[in-house]
Fold each of these.
Amino acid sequence: MENIAENIIAPEIINEAMDYDEYRQMIDKLVGQDKTTGDNHSEEMVHYTKMNVQRMKRLDKRVELSDSLVEALNDLDEDWIWLVLTEAWCGDAAQNIPPIVKIADKSEHIDLRFILRDKHLDIMDEYLTNGGRSIPKLICLDAETFEEIGTWGPRPEAAQEKAMEWKNDDHISKEEWAKKLHKWYAKDRTNELQSEFKEMISEWK
């Protein structure tokens, strides 16, 4: 089977990718200039980005990992790179990246890196969700060979099912869809994400 990651994710892309601190600093700098990532710096997109900064700050402080997930991380003895495609204006990225950071920080075997989707559409287009460029998208790579081990994203499966259900409902506006989705995240408190990552880490090993 052809390994997509080996063919399109060059070592320099990993080397130039941002860590979480660099990602957050880049967003803060852009917001300070009334901008966001990508080419669309409309008032609406900058507003989304500012809300996402607050979401990430809140989650950075609040996320606590389950004992079973920590146990799975402690059993990990392979070195991985987790490469995440993201953008500052993306609400799903703001909800899911902070818990992913907590997970990666718990293991010395996981190197978490971030690249912007719109600067790497060649990579994004190999990892579409239902034909769309949905983010965040995490690609787990072997740290030595860059072989693709697995992927995750753009949101926990339970949230994805709800999101698609609401999206296909003509009575739900785009604004109401977003509100319902963020309400789902608030109620779930990263439990679904943590459960999925616990299972994936065991499978990927």
Amino acid sequence: MSDRGKVLVRVEDLKMSFPIREGVLLKRRTGEIKAVDGLTFDIYRGETLGLVGESGCGKSTAGRAIVQLCRPTAGQVTFEGTPLTKIRGERLRRMRRRMQMIFQDPYASLNPRMTVGSIVGEPLAVHNILSRQERRERVEELLEIVGLNPYFIQRYPHEFSGGQRQRIGVARALAVQPDFIVCDEPISALDVSIQAQIINLLVELQDRFALTYLFIAHDLSMVRHISDRVAVMYLGKLAELTDRDTLYTHPLHPYTQALLSAVPVPDPEAEARRQRVILEGDVPSPAHPPQGCRFSTRCPVAGEECRHVEPEWRNVGGAAGEHWVACHRVGR
């Protein structure tokens, strides 16, 4: 029986804060930046969960906290029954074989002093997998899988284009045969002509190796193409989460509606007819978030309750059966 559809990663009340320090020696703590503030959601085996939102809303920090590259301030992340936030040392290191990350910037995420063979083979060496000769053969196989010539094994990152470097990053993530990969805006630093190639590669690899993705991005059209479900994030909190088709055709949260109204439509007549939602003001600082709903300072339908009471993260059901939203106005 296939495990597809079972919960692989469970995130409960995840928080990630960074202290604000002042003074000559930066010893005096004067506040904190709440980059991630109470995320709760599940990621099912075999799916791609898209995580979208404006720059600076905490998407990348959430991804790093889920795979424990940053240890969360509070909350819990459970990977197939194992509480990642409660384990350390050798046990956590063994779990890292099953979780990998593809980073946003292919120019900064590859060590310029290492050859491609060393970069892709490093996870195998760290986890003591295979002999030296077998590692070389595995690296050549991985390069071929991601569409690169195996003879490039002795070359250095500066000899490759941005798209080729990102393929190297994908090969490195695949090296230890993980179950779960966090894709942290893997196409945002690439030319538009190359973005579709990387997305198609990720889809192909998911089908071939039964991978589960958390796909972080701000390009809503690309997220719609690759994701099974989509979560919308604003200022450290989730605003809405449901399946892709429901989110794009029947968004409930005012912030989601505003985001989707900004996506260009290829039909000129439909583009002229549709109503745009223009948000006023700037995104508040995560160091001083608004009281109540985080979106209340920019929301066109916010009331007094929205400005003072934080909305509950609740499942309102609907046609999809599972439609999570944090808004006082939904269902009233």
Amino acid sequence: MSITEKIIEYIQTNKVSTTEVADCLGKTGVLPDIYPVNRGQFQAGRVKWVYAYNESNWDVHEQIRDVQKGDIVYIEAFDCNDRSIIGELVSKYILLYRRAGAIVMNARVRDAHKLIKEKYPVWCTGFSPVGCFNTKNENPFDDGIIFSRKRDVDGAVMVCDDSGVVLIPKDQLTEDFYKKLEAIEEQEDIWFDCIDRRKWDTFDTVCLKKYKEL
């Protein structure tokens, strides 16, 4: 098992929240303004990066044919002007037939009523009935963006829950980060024990860490 698989398995097994993962990253890593369509969802997995641009989702349809089981499909939109990138049809294909773990977008989706009804694990910036066009762009997408995202995002790890989405960069997928996850889980257990059982206040627990004196 690779260290990436080990980290994903630990997060999934222990339901390590985005809050805790962000803390392990020094309170960083959040994808801004992205929230779940459906509450009560939790997903973690390796990122499959997909792009859409110039108000077209042609390239999305082409790229999602390579989605693997358990992937977190991250669709990043460029110059799509608040149009929805996908809706029910593409979400169903990605989640049910390609067996992805989740879909994350820095853009809007449509068919919200269907996504909600099916309780699909989708995270996005909002909704719009106005979608992108199924037409091929005349000009190719920026090679520099493709290179940088393949280097930095594709193959990284995302954790998604009710609070939003956090990205664990590839250079953080190490044994040291794994140990940080273990440590923060232990810390959370200690803190709640201090509050729930010992009836301490949060200042003694979190700030003064008086449990270290026991």
Amino acid sequence: MIKIGVVGANGKMGSEVVKLAISDPELELVCAVDANNIGQNIYNDVYIEGDLEAALKIRNVDVVVDFTQPKSVYENVLTYIENGVKSVIGTTGLSNQQISKIQQVSDEKNVGCFIAPNFSIGAILMMKFASEASKYFSNAEIIEYHHNQKKDAPSGTSIKTAQLMMKNNNNFKLGNCEETETINGARGGNYSINGNGNIQIHAVRMPGFVASQEVIFGADGQILKIHHDTINRECYMSGVKLAVEHIFKNNNFVYGLENIL
């Protein structure tokens, strides 16, 4: 039995993790933290708590699952590690520098931490397919679509996709003419690392979407589109459980669900 703490327990994703922990016989919900509805009994005398560090010290938590906000997630992760609590992080918005620092502290303290921009198996396969296609196409762009309450842009999934693509191709703008934007941002954001990559990422925010992404590859005379749609948030839960089970048994740092599939 893995004892689960959920941080961001009242949020849309956090609520799904709470349901998972309640319904799965291999998991036990022992802690719930959120800034809202403090004191609410959400299940079997597990109450919403507002003080994260105090909750970690009091509750016997094996693994914390964090779906909070981009502005707070970095400090949250450091708090988990400093308190010797393993964590699975689904909140996006962490910078490359922050992820590197988290990995460093995780390794130093020997406390497992699993960060995943996306927990959908289909989305992970979409990223793998895009990475493979990058070997054969000179041009590519990413369009990601999310609901209009998502605060960070572009999505962690699109950034992770771009990183995987760049492992197989260091320039996705071969042959493009010199461009001029008559409206700032019309071409989206250019994702590159040390001058490599050059992948345009376009972020759409609109009610009606949950999460979708399309990677478009172009070459002379042909277009390849790799598209994935998330219909509801339940689809993430199988990936969340895989991450929880892995980090419960291991003390390593992991970035990306594809590393354990």
